[in-house]
Design a protein that fits this description.
- By secondary structure, the chain is α/β, with parallel strands linked by helices.
- 46% of the residues lie in helices and 20% in strands.
- Helix 5 links the parallel strand 3 and strand 4.
- Helix 2 crosses helix 3.
- This is LysR family transcriptional regulator.
């Protein structure tokens, strides 16, 4: 028996003194109201109404039970109201600034299907960490080494023109000795990848193949990095999804396989599990995880 539904029917009929009127006010058929009241009487072990062909009146037992039934109905309505407010309360999530708006919009829509009202805060890695530490967001997608990650995004080099090869090697950016005045091509790292597990192996490779220190540099933003690539021959370290979004030609890096790693951190374990589980695929799309992964 649905105790709340039965109490609603009992209270409505008892308040209005009629199964017809009470059922109408409760927005249920009269036959349903009668069945629910009868079920409640069996459950409580006593008769709630004296029924005649013309009237319905509360029994002494019914009058004693009416106040308790009202409290149950009021508590149920308060709980339903609180649940609605909780579903509508924004779930603030810090996400990478490199995420494409379209993918983020799809994530918000998917979250609504799971009764989650996402409010996204885009930011660079350090900013996302600060937002989480200050409890300004409920959860954040943070950069972590690949072996600690829930999501992994392969990185490569992208430029404004098709390089005509399947793999780009960093050593090809060396300036010939006979042409020292030629402009040195650079690899730009966006702030999203200015983290040790991505930046440091790349700078070590730069030194190993004999590039100048300025030939691998951190850009102010991914937009600035893309502008340098589109305007000339520089390259951007990015994911295939970012390259498509920016209109760049992406290739794997020959000497290295850099990977972005992401993990979700939240104040409540259930929040993190929700993002990794029910919304995991939508989060992966936002981060640029390849479909095959």
């Amino acid at each position: 028996m649905d105790l709340v539904a039965a109490c609603r029917a009992f209270v409505s009929v008892g308040t209005h003194g009629s199964f017809t009127v009470g059922a109408s006010v409760a927005r249920i058929p009269q036959s349903v109201a009668s069945r629910r009241v009868a079920a409640l009487e069996r459950h409580l072990g006593g008769q709630l109404f004296d029924r005649t062909s013309r009237s319905v009146t509360l029994t002494t037992f019914g009058r004693d039970m009416l106040a308790s039934a009202r409290r149950i109905v009021e508590l149920a309505e308060a709980m339903e109201h609180d649940a609605e407010r909780a579903r509508l309360r924004p779930f603030r999530l810090a996400v990478p600034a490199v995420c494409a708006p379209r993918s983020l919009a799809r994530l918000v829509v998917e979250a609504r299907r799971h009764d989650l009202n996402l409010e996204l805060r885009r930011g660079e890695p350090a900013e996302r960490a600060r937002l989480r530490q200050r409890h300004e967001v409920r959860a954040a997608l943070l950069c972590v080494p690949p072996d600690e990650a829930a999501w992994r995004v392969p990185l490569g080099l992208a430029g404004g023109t098709d390089p005509g090869v399947e793999v780009v090697r960093l050593e090809t950016l060396r300036t010939p000795r006979a042409n020292r005045r030629a402009r040195r091509r650079r690899v730009w790292i966006s702030p999203e990848d200015d983290v040790p597990h991505v930046r440091d192996p790349l700078t070590r490779l730069r030194d190993a193949v004999g590039l100048q220190p300025t030939q691998v540099a951190v850009a102010a933003s991914v937009v600035d990095a893309a502008a340098e690539a589109l305007a000339g021959t520089d390259l951007v370290l990015c994911s295939p999804a970012e390259a498509r979004e920016l209109g760049l030609h992406w290739r794997q890096l020959g000497e290295l396989r850099p990977v972005r790693g992401y993990q979700v951190t939240a104040g409540v374990r259930e929040d993190a599990e929700r993002l990794r589980g029910a919304l995991g695929a939508a989060v992966a799309r936002c981060l640029g995880v390849p479909e095959a992964a």
